[in-house]
Design goal:
- Helices cover 34% and strands 23% of the residues.
- It has 244 residues and is α/β, with parallel strands linked by helices.
- The protein has a single domain, classed as PAC-like subunit (Rossmann fold, 3-Layer(aba) Sandwich).
- Helix 1 packs across helix 5, helix 2 packs parallel to helix 4 and helix 5 packs antiparallel against helix 6.
- The longest helix is centred in the C-terminal third of the chain and has 16 residues.
- The protein starts with a strand and ends in a 12-residue tail after the last helix.
Amino acid sequence: MLSRVRVKLESSVLKDKVLIAGFHGIGYVGYLAVKHLVKVLNGKLVGHILTAWLPQLVAATPDGISSPYEIYDLGTSAVFVPNVPMSRYDTNLVPLALAEASVSGGARFALLIGGLDNRFRRDEGDFRYAATRAFLAVHGELLKGAKRLEEGLYIVGPLATMLAYYSAYDFPAVAILPYADPSSVDPLAAKVAVDLVSRMLGVEVDTSELIRLAEEKVKLERELEEIRKRAAKGEEGAVPTFYV
C-alpha cells in the first residue's frame, strides 16, 4: 500500500539546482508562473509526488499522461507543478515532502512563487518578498532594491509550510509575492513573477503568452474553474481552498 506521501525522482535531479514551486493561490500567480516556465523553457518531466490522497484527475498529453503533482528539469532549476489543486490532506504533506526532498537532494536554494492581495499595496512596487536568514546571508544580492513583506502580513498555505521547514533547517529559500487581484486569475501578476525568476536565475524567458492570457482573461477563468470543479469531485463535493 502506498505510504502517505512519496517523492519519486530521477537520481540527483535536484543536486545544485534551484527548486521553483508555485500553487493555486491568490490570482493563481504561482500556478500560472510555474506552468509558463515549464512550457516556454521546454521542461523535461523527471519526477512525481504521489500520496494516498492523490486527486483522481489526470489528462492525456502528446507525451503520455499528465498527473496531479509533477516535477520538471529546466537545466539550472527544477520546477514543481501542481496540475490540479491539492486535496485537503495534501496541502501540508506535499509541501513538506517537497521541501524535505530539496534539502536532502542538495538543491542550491528554493524560489517560491505566490500572490499578494493588491489591496495591501502601499506604493508603486510590484511585489514583496519573504526570505530565510540563510537566503539573505548567501543570496541577498538577488533581492537588491526589493522590499520585504511588511510586518503584520502573513503568508498562509503551502508556501508558509515550506518556508517554515526551510527556516528550521537553515536552508536558503525565498518567496516572491507579486501584487495580484484576489478575486480572479491574474496573468499579469504571474508575468511579474516570471520576470523576477528570469532576472534572479539569469535565464531569458518570453512572457508574451502571459500577456495574451491577460487579454483573454474571461476564457482562462472558465478553464481554471472547470479544473477546480473536477478536482473537487474527488473530495465528496468539497471545493479545495486556494492559498497564497
